[in-house]
Amino acid sequence: MSVSESPTTGRWEFDEFVLDLGRYELRRGSHVVAVEPQVFDVLTRLVVNHHRCVTKEELFDSVWGGRFVGEAALTSRIKAARRALGDDGESQCYIRTIRGRGYQFVGTLAPPTTAEEAAPSAPVTEVVVPQQHIAFCRAGDGVRLAYASIGDGAPLVRAANWLTHLGYDIESPVWRHWVHDLSRTYRFVRYDERGCGLSDWAVRDFTFDDWVDDLAALVDALELPTFSLLGVSQGGAVAVAYAARHPERVTKLVLCGAYARGRAVRAVGDDERRAAALDLELARVGWGRDDPAFRQVFAAQFLPEGSRDDWRAFDELQRRTTATDNAVRFLHEFARIDVRDLAGLVTCPALVMHSRDDHRVPMRFGEELAALIPHARFLALPSQNHLLTGTEPAWRMFCAETAAFLAEEAPSDRAAE
Any idea what DSSP says for residue 245? Predict the structure, then answer.
């Protein structure tokens, strides 16, 4: 490995910290330290090349891909890395500034271990994790988007939705069954939306149209001429908008827990408007706190039938996936979603599924969306959960109905025979 390269697996230990490259995690003891992807990349570059000074030019090339950014961007990432390690510009216990040149990691490192060497030797309940390769592409405005593709079948792209992390989702109880089960049949493509997971957190533009454009950038980067499209929760509105604007690309549309109107748009009366505003206040006040009480309000809404372990997993997912400011920005934009006009322009076959007693998005809003999409089918699932768990009957129904729907011939195909 040359000095300009970084490994993508293995881990580095120093003091009570572990920098786990395979899982894209910085941990302090048993606690995951939330850092933005670019901060993680800067820290990785410094740790891997700890034996020397890493120049500013190298960091610009490796972290920003040669894209022009001001020196203030690098300075802010160094400051954030130091803050994550309990370091600062005065003590420089871990990251030393080499004036006029760059930076060097000066902490005391244990010998690096590979992912295999780091595996526990004691018997554990093993979760088989699919092999995935995480890659990156650029949105039209230069924002870096992380994506992964698993499986060998026909392409099924999931429009990004809130609270994902490509490096963690394949083992998280919240999302792993989606990845495991769908990748058995399809080439399952998923990505972290801007401001979330392994995609750039520090982004200027953060609108619904940006999310639709990001999906377009992803499928263009993967050179997918046609594909089936899956939309979950607010990702459903993104999928609807993309399918309406690019009818030649989307062959089938599958939606689950989706809606045409966000909470602020569909709110009727003061009580509903106050409930929509409460989402923002909960995120603003409680997201970054170690006390999970505030975040558990979201867990109770998304997974009311979930176990305590499910709630803990959802809380962990919230902490890992985004920062407090971004959580507020997400919720603000979700509340303003309105794709009623675009839904009527969808021309591909569509299957809309929704939990019958969804606590987060009542089923009537899924029915509304299905009614707006020409010739869409609607199916009620026997669940209270907004995000289906892997152990409930509704998940098996979702998988079976999705498989049957995607296997059907399109009307145009039958007519051509």
Answer: H
pLDDT at residue 116 in the model: 47
CB neighbour burial string for 194-222, b if at least 16 within 10 angstroms, e if fewer: bbbbbbbbbbeebebebbbbbbbbbbebb
What pLDDT, on the 0 to 100 scale, is given for residue 280?
75
Query: How many residues make up the chain in this entry?
Result: 417
CA 239 to chain centre: 15
- Name the one residue in this structure whose structure tokens are 């060097």: 104
- CB contact set of 21 (below 8 Å; sequence gap of 6+): 6, 7, 8, 9, 10, 11, 12, 44
Instruction: Map residue 3 onto helix, strand or coil.
Output: coil
31 pLDDT higher than 90: no
Q: Which helix (H) or strand (E) holds 256?
A: strand 250-256
Instruction: Specify the residue for token string 């970084």.
Output: 6
Q: Which pLDDT score, from 0 to 100, does residue 245 have? A: 97
Model pTM score:
0.76
The amino acid at 365: F
Cα–Cα separations (whole angstroms), residue 168 to 171, 173, 175, 232, 237: 6, 10, 9, 18, 24
| CA gap 355, 294 in Å, rounded | 24
Q: How far is CA 280 from the centre of its chain?
A: 20
Residue 415 has pLDDT above 60, yes or no: no
Q: Contact, 360 vs 256, CB < 8 A?
A: no
201: nearest Cα among 102, 88, 327: 327
State how far the Cα of 164 lies from the Cα of 169, in Å rounded to an integer.
7
In this structure, what token pair is assigned to residue 253?
């549309």
Tens digits of per-residue pLDDT, 123-134? 444 455 567 889
